[in-house]
Amino acid sequence: MKIETKFGLREIVTTRQKRIGDRIIPDLIGEVVTIQVSCLVSGDPIYFVRMTDGHILPFAESDLIGDPDFDQEKGAYPEEAQ
Fold first, then answer.
1. Beta carbons within 10 angstroms of residue 28's beta carbon
2. Distance CA 21, CA 52 (A)
3. Which of 25, 26, 76, 36 minimizes the C-alpha distance to 59?
4. Spatial distance between the Cα atoms of 72 and 78, rounded to a whole number of angstroms
5. Are strands 23-25 and 29-36 parallel, antiparallel or unpaired?
6. 26: number of CA atoms within 13 Å, CB side?
7. Is the C-alpha dihedral spanning 72, 70, 68, 24 positive or negative?
8. Which of 11, 28, 60, 62 is most buried (CB neighbours < 10 A)?
């Protein structure tokens, strides 16, 4: 089975801004440190992201926005891939 994910390890991602009642949860920035894929749930990957405060939090793919500069093929940013 081949598994493809929208975001790669070490990719910098931001969370999508959310509104809960009258509160707005701001965008947060973090680095993908682990990707979990399970056949027991929907098969959608769960991304574990290290936030700027050091906490590692799980996110669904739909909750994240990736960095367009990240090279998925090489698994690195252009300056790191050389």
1. 18
2. 26
3. 36
4. 10
5. unpaired
6. 2
7. positive
8. 11
Give 10-residue mean pLDDT values along the chain (82 residues): 84 84 83 87 85 92 87 76 54
Distance CA 80, CA 28 (A): 24
Q: Considering the entire predicted model, what is its pTM?
A: 0.77
Rounded Cα gap, residues 45 and 23, in angstroms: 28
Residue with tokens 């910098």, as numbered in its chain: 12
* Nearest-angstrom CA–CA distance, 43 and 55: 25
CA distance 13 to 69: 11
